[in-house]
């Protein structure tokens, strides 16, 4: 199954992203074994959406994969690597206000 409904849409929030919501539903139903993308960090920019996706993958056994490799979200090192890649990805979207840090 290919889900590409969200091409060209901002990943700042899952709201209004029918493709992301369908992906979450298919993972939840256990219909997905591999979530393949060019760059996993581009799937979700908000921490809430990102962690929901990773947790559902871990619970269902779905493996996220991109050009950097295949990741097992049950494994601490893989989750850490995915999180580091997400946080270090170029910020081309408007940041989620809940994830902004204040500097003094």
Structural overview:
The chain is globular and about 25 Å long. The relative contact order is 0.17. It has helices at residues 18-28, 47-60, 76-88; strands spanning 34-36, 63-66, 69-70. Helix 2 (47-60) links the parallel strand 1 and strand 2 (63-66). With 104 residues, the chain is mainly alpha-helical. It contains three helices and three strands. The chain has a three-stranded mixed β-sheet, with helices on one face.
Q: Supply the helix-strand structural class.
A: mainly alpha
- Count of helices? 3
What fraction strand?
5-15%
**Strands of the largest sheet, in order across it?**
1-2-3
Beta strands, count? 3
Percent of residues in helices comes to 25-40%
Q: Quaternary status of these chains? A: single chain
Q: Which descriptors would you attach to this protein?
A:
104 residues, mainly alpha, 3-stranded mixed sheet, 3 helices, 3 strands, disordered C terminus
Compact description:
The chain has 104 residues and is mainly alpha-helical. The protein has helices at 18-28, 47-60, 76-88; strands spanning 34-36, 63-66, 69-70.
Task: Give the topology, please.
Blueprint: H1 18-28, E1 34-36, H2 47-60, E2 63-66, E3 69-70, H3 76-88
Parallel strand pairs: 1-2
Antiparallel strand pairs: 2-3
